[in-house]
Write a structure and sequence with these properties.
Layout: E1 2-3, E2 14-16, E3 22-28, E4 31-46, E5 49-61, H1 68-74, E6 83-88, E7 93-95, H2 100-115, E8 125-129
Antiparallel strand pairs: 1-8, 2-4, 2-8, 3-4, 4-5, 5-6, 6-7
C-alpha cells in the first residue's frame, strides 16, 4: 500500500489506526510468516449513496512485519478490500456483529465520519491505497 496526500474516492482509500496492528506468527515451509490485521475506516459509494465503513485490513506476509508501517508497505494485494464490521449511510446501519455495545461504538465513529466526508477521522492515518 502507499499513502496518498489527498482523498480520491475512485482510488478506494483507507484510513488506518496505526496502533491497532495485530500479528500472529506461524511457521511455514519456507520460514515464519505473519498474519496481520489492522483497524481501518473507508468510504464507498453505491447507486449515488455514500457509506462510511469500519472494519479491518488483513494480510499474511513474509517477512513478519515489525510494525504498522512495514505491514502497510508489504500489503500489496487489494483484491479483497477491507473486511467490514459495520457501515452507515446516514439512514441505515448495517453490522456484521450482534453486540449492541460494539454497534454503538461503531455508530459513534461512523456518524461524524460521514458528516465530515471526506475528512480523515481524528486518530486515524490516511489515505492508504493499493
Amino acid at each position: 500500500m502507499r499513502r496518498e496526500d489527498r482523498f480520491v474516492l475512485s482510488h478506494r482509500p483507507y484510513a488506518v489506526d496505526l496502533s491497532s496492528l495485530r500479528v500472529k506468527v506461524a511457521a511455514g515451509w519456507n520460514g515464519d510468516y505473519g498474519h496481520g490485521n489492522i483497524n481501518a475506516v473507508w468510504f464507498r459509494r453505491k447507486n449515488g449513496v455514500t457509506f462510511a465503513c469500519v472494519g479491518e485490513l488483513w494480510d499474511s506476509q513474509q517477512p513478519v512485519p515489525a510494525d504498522a508501517a512495514q505491514f502497510l508497505a508489504q500489503h500489496d494485494d487489494g483484491r479483497y478490500g477491507g473486511r467490514p464490521f459495520a457501515r452507515w449511510d446516514g439512514e441505515r446501519f448495517w453490522s456484521a456483529g450482534q453486540d449492541p455495545d460494539e454497534n454503538d461504538r461503531h455508530l459513534e465513529l461512523l456518524r461524524p465520519m460521514l458528516a465530515d466526508y471526506p475528512a480523515v477521522p481524528d486518530g486515524w492515518d490516511g489515505w492508504w491505497v493499493f
